[in-house]
C-alpha cells in the first residue's frame, strides 16, 4: 500500500499553540471563506450586507500595521520554494544570486499585478538572503569554499539528503538552507506526517543552527520557532549532539533605530535570545531617565539582549533564557515586568551611546558595560511547553477529523475557543481522549478566546461566525480586554453602543472653524508612499515609508483656486524630489492645511526635514550629499535648512485633521483636550452631554433628518458606553473612521453634497496599498518606462486626487449635518475674521453663536 505523507511546516505548525485543532487545516483566506459560504452554512442567512469581500482590507484601516512585507505563510513559502537560484562566488569572496525565474519587464500590471508583485518580493527576499549569508561569512571568517547550499527547488527528499551529505563532508563548514525531516509513525493505516524544519544556516564548527528574520525586533514567537526546529531535529535523531546553540540573524536594531543604514544596503545583527513578549518593544517614556539610557534600553530589548542579563546584572550569552538553553529545558521566557535602575551611574551612559551612534554594530560590546537593569525587578517567568509527541498526536487527530471536511466545524471551533485563557489546553487534552462529548459543552459556553494570530477583520469575522446574527461587526476597539473573552459581555456592549444615536456635537464645528475664515487659502492634500525592506534613501530605516506622490487642491472661500498632482518616478527617486513635494504642499504659504489623519502626513514632513539635515551634516563625506546641498542652495538659498524647516513647521502647525471629527477620544482625557466644553455645572451633567451641544439625526432617503432632543437621555454613559466620545457619531460606520468608510456612508445614502467623487471600487487603483504596490514595482524596475508613464502615472494621480476630493466631501458632510440643525452656520462660513472665537449654542435662543472660550 502506498504511503500517504502529509507535510507540516512551521507556517502550519505554529497554529497548534493556539489550542484549536479545528483551525489547523483549511483556514486560508478565512474571512472571505466565512463571508462567502461558512456563515450561511451555520446560520442559514447571509452575513451582514454592509460587509463584503471587497471591504475586507478597508476594515483594517484603523488597525496597527506591522513590518509585513515578508509574511511567513504558505503562499509565500510556496513562491520562494519555486524560485531556482544559483549562488555564484565573485572575485571578492562574496556570493551573488542569480535568480532564474522569468519576470517580464513590460508588464500589464492591471491584469497581472499581484503575480508580478510576488516576484518583486522574491527578488528582495533573495537579495536579503544573499546579503545575510555574506555578512555571516565575514563575521566568522568562513572560507567560501567551505560553504554548501541546499537548493530551494530540490525535492524534500533531496533537501534532507543533501543536508545529511554536507553534514558528513569534512570540507563543508557552513550549510545554507539545511532541511530536517521527522517522519511520524503511521496512523490511520498508511498515513504519516513529515514535520519539516529548515534553518537559514548550520555552522558545523560552532555547532550552531541559525534562523533568519526580516524585521528589526525579536519577539517570543522566535522561541516557538526554535522549539519546532529543536524537536524536529531531536525526533529525527541523526544530528543529536551536533547542534548546541541557536541564533537569529536579523536587521540590526541599533542601525535601524539610529538610521545609519545606507540606501540599498543592509546591516545585520545576530541575536541569541528574544524579547519575551508578543508585542514589539516600545521605547520607555520614563522622562526622569536620560533619553540615552532609554535609547539603549529600547535597542537591548529589540535585539533580545535584555533577556540575557543574569542576576548579577551581567550580560551573558549563556544565560538560561537564551534560545538554546530555554528550548532545551522546554520553556519559553515570558516577561512580567521591566525596570531600569534609577540608582545607576547614569553619567556613564552618554559615551556608550555616542559609541553606539558612531558604530551601530557594537551592540554586544555596549551590553558588556551596561548596568542599568535592576535585575531583581526585571522579572521573567517561564511558560513550559507541551511535549512534542503530544503535538504530533494533535495534528494527526485533527487531520483525520477536520482536514477533509467540506466546511468548517462550527461546533468544534466554538468548543475549543470556549476555554478560559489562550494557554489553557485542557479542552484539547479532553478531545485527544475522546471525552469532548460531541463538543456539547461549547455550545452554551459564553467564553470565547480568539487568539492574536487573527487580527483586524479576520478576528471580527471569525467572532461573527461563532456568535451569530446578534453580533454586529463593530470595530474590536469598543471592547475591553476582559469583554473580548466573554460573549455575553460583547453582546451587551454592542447593544449599548447600538443605542447611541447619530449625533453631532458642536465641537465638530470648532475643529473645522479655521476653514470658515474669510479669504483664507486652504490647502487640501494627501500623500501616498512606498517602502522596501532595504532603505530607499540614506539615513532611512528599513521598511520606512517614503512619500512619492501628492495631490494638492487649494481653495479660497470654498472655491477651487489651483490643483497639482505630482507622481515621482520611484525608479530614480531622490531626496530633492521629496523636498519639492513638500514645497508644492506649502503652496506659497497657504493659511491652513487639511488632511485626514495628520499623524501620517505630519510625520512624513518631519522625516524629510531630518533627511535634509542629515545630508547637510554629511556633505563632506559623499559627493551626492554635496550635490544635494548645491541643489537646495539653488532652490531656496544658502539658508535653505532654516527656510525649509520653517515651511514644514508652518504646514504642521496649521494642519486641520478631519479625522478628529470622527475618531473616538477617551473620556479620561477629553476634559484636558477640550476644557471649554467640558465644564460641569453644579448638579448637572457635563456640557459635553448637554442637549444644547448635542443634536440627533437619522438617515432618510437621500437626506438626513433631525430627531427631537427629548428622544434620548443625555449622559456620558449613554453617549460613550465604550469610553469613547465622538464629535460626529454615525452608527452606520460601526466605530470605524477611515475616510473610505465615511465615503461609503455618503454614497450609500446618496447625500446631496456639492462635491462628488468617483467611487473607489470604480477606480483602477482603489486603495493605498495598491498605489504602494505600483510605486514599489517601479522602484524595483519591474515596470517599464512606457507602462509607467502612460498607464500607471495617470491612474495614480486619479486615485490620489480622488482622496483629496473625498476630504472636501467629508467636510461638506459635516457642514450638511450642521446646516440641518443650525442653518445660521451660513452666516459664519467663510465670513469669520478670527480663530479667537469658538462656536457655542445660545441657551436662550438655541442658535449658533461665536464667543470667546
TrEMBL record:
<dbReference type="InterPro" id="IPR021301">
    <property type="entry name" value="DUF2779"/>
</dbReference>
<feature type="domain" description="DUF2779">
    <location>
        <begin position="523"/>
        <end position="667"/>
    </location>
</feature>
<dbReference type="Pfam" id="PF11074">
    <property type="entry name" value="DUF2779"/>
</dbReference>
<protein>
    <submittedName>
        <fullName>DUF2779 domain-containing protein</fullName>
    </submittedName>
</protein>
Amino acid at each position: 500500500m502506498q504511503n500517504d505523507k502529509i507535510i507540516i511546516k512551521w507556517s502550519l505548525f505554529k497554529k497548534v499553540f493556539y489550542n484549536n485543532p479545528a483551525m489547523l487545516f483549511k483556514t486560508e483566506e478565512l474571512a472571505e471563506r466565512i463571508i462567502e459560504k461558512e456563515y450561511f452554512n451555520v446560520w442559514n442567512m447571509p452575513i451582514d450586507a454592509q460587509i463584503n469581500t471587497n471591504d475586507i482590507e478597508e476594515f483594517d484601516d484603523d488597525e496597527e500595521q506591522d513590518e509585513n512585507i515578508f509574511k511567513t505563510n504558505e503562499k509565500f513559502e510556496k513562491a520562494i520554494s519555486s524560485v531556482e537560484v544559483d549562488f555564484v562566488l565573485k572575485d571578492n569572496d562574496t556570493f551573488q544570486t542569480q535568480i532564474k525565474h522569468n519576470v517580464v519587464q513590460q508588464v500589464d500590471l492591471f491584469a497581472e499585478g499581484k503575480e508580478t508583485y510576488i516576484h518583486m518580493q522574491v527578488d528582495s527576499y533573495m537579495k536579503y538572503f544573499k546579503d545575510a549569508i555574506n555578512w555571516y561569512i565575514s563575521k566568522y571568517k568562513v572560507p567560501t569554499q567551505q560553504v554548501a547550499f541546499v537548493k530551494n527547488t530540490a525535492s524534500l527528499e533531496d533537501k534532507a539528503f543533501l543536508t545529511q551529505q554536507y553534514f558528513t563532508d569534512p570540507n563543508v563548514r557552513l550549510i545554507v538552507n539545511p532541511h530536517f525531516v521527522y517522519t511520524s509513525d503511521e496512523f490511520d493505516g498508511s498515513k504519516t506526517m513529515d514535520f519539516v524544519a529548515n534553518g537559514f544556516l548550520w555552522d558545523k564548527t560552532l555547532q550552531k543552527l541559525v534562523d533568519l528574520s526580516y524585521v528589526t525586533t525579536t519577539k517570543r514567537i522566535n522561541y516557538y520557532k526554535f522549539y519546532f526546529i529543536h524537536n524536529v531535529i531531536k525526533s529525527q535523531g541523526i544530528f543529536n549532539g551536533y547542534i548546541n546553540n541557536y541564533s537569529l540573524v536579523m536587521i540590526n536594531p541599533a542601525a535601524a533605530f539610529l538610521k545609519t543604514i545606507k540606501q540599498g544596503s543592509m546591516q545585520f545583527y545576530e541575536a541569541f535570545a528574544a524579547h519575551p513578549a508578543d508585542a514589539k518593544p516600545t521605547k520607555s517614556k520614563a522622562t526622569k531617565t536620560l533619553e540615552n539610557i532609554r535609547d539603549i534600553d529600547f535597542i537591548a530589548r529589540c535585539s533580545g539582549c535584555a533577556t540575557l542579563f543574569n542576576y548579577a546584572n551581567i550580560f551573558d550569552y549563556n544565560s538560561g533564557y537564551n534560545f538554546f538553553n530555554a528550548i532545551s529545558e522546554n520553556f519559553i521566557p515570558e516577561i512580567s515586568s521591566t525596570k531600569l535602575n534609577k540608582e545607576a551611574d547614569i553619567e556613564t551612559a552618554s559615551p556608550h551611546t555616542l559609541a553606539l551612534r558612531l558604530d551601530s554594530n557594537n551592540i554586544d560590546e555596549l551590553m558588556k558595560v551596561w548596568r542599568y537593569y535592576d535585575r531583581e525587578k526585571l522579572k521573567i517567568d517561564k511558560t513550559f511547553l507541551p511535549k512534542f509527541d503530544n503535538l504530533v498526536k494533535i495534528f494527526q487527530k485533527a487531520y483525520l477529523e477536520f482536514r477533509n471536511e467540506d466546511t468548517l466545524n462550527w461546533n468544534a471551533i466554538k468548543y475549543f475557543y470556549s476555554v478560559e485563557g489562550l494557554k489553557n489546553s485542557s479542552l484539547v487534552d479532553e478531545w485527544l481522549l475522546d471525552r469532548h462529548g460531541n463538543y456539547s459543552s461549547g455550545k452554551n459556553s459564553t467564553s470565547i478566546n480568539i487568539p492574536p494570530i487573527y487580527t483586524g477583520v479576520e478576528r471580527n469575522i471569525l467572532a461573527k461566525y461563532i456568535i451569530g446574527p446578534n453580533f454586529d461587526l463593530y470595530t474590536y476597539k469598543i471592547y475591553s480586554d476582559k469583554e473580548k473573552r466573554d460573549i455575553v459581555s460583547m453582546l451587551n456592549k454592542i447593544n449599548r453602543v447600538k443605542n447611541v444615536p447619530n449625533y453631532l456635537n458642536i465641537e465638530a464645528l470648532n475643529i473645522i472653524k479655521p476653514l470658515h475664515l474669510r479669504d483664507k487659502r486652504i490647502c487640501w492634500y494627501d500623500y501616498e508612499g512606498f517602502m522596501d525592506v532595504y532603505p530607499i534613501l540614506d539615513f532611512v530605516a528599513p521598511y520606512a515609508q517614503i512619500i512619492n506622490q501628492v495631490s494638492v487642491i487649494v481653495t479660497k472661500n470654498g472655491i477651487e483656486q489651483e490643483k497639482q498632482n505630482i507622481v515621482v518616478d520611484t525608479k530614480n527617486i531622490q531626496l530633492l524630489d521629496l523636498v519639492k513635494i513638500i514645497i508644492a504642499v506649502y503652496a506659497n504659504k497657504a493659511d491652513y492645511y487639511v488632511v485626514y489623519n495628520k499623524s501620517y502626513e505630519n510625520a512624513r514632513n518631519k522625516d524629510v526635514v531630518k533627511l535634509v539635515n542629515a545630508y547637510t551634516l554629511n556633505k563632506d563625506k559623499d559627493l551626492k550629499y554635496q550635490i544635494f546641498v548645491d541643489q537646495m542652495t539653488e532652490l531656496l538659498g544658502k539658508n535653505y535648512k532654516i527656510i525649509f524647516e520653517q515651511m514644514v513647521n508652518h504646514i504642521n502647525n496649521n494642519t486641520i485633521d478631519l479625522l478628529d471629527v470622527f475618531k473616538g477620544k477617551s473620556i479620561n482625557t477629553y476634559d484636558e483636550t477640550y476644557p471649554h466644553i467640558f465644564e460641569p455645572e453644579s448638579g448637572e451633567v457635563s456640557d459635553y452631554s448637554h442637549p444644547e451641544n448635542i443634536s440627533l439625526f437619522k438617515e432618510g432617503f437621500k437626506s438626513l433628518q433631525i430627531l427631537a432632543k427629548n428622544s434620548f437621555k443625555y449622559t456620558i454613559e449613554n453617549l460613550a458606553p465604550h469610553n469613547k466620545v465622538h464629535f460626529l457619531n454615525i452608527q452606520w460606520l460601526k466605530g470605524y473612521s477611515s475616510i473610505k468608510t465615511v465615503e461609503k456612508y455618503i454614497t450609500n445614502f446618496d447625500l446631496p453634497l456639492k462635491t462628488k467623487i468617483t467611487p473607489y471600487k470604480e477606480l483602477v487603483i482603489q486603495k493605498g496599498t495598491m498605489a504602494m504596490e505600483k510605486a514599489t514595482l517601479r522602484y524595483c524596475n519591474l515596470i517599464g518606462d512606457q507602462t509607467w508613464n502612460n498607464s500607471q502615472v495617470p491612474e495614480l494621480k486619479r486615485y490620489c486626487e480622488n482622496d483629496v476630493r473625498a476630504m472636501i466631501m467629508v467636510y461638506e458632510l459635516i457642514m450638511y449635518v450642521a446646516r440641518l440643525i443650525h442653518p445660521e452656520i451660513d452666516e459664519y462660513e467663510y465670513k469669520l475674521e478670527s480663530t479667537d472665537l469658538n462656536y457655542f449654542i445660545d441657551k436662550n435662543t438655541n442658535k449658533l453663536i461665536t464667543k470667546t472660550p
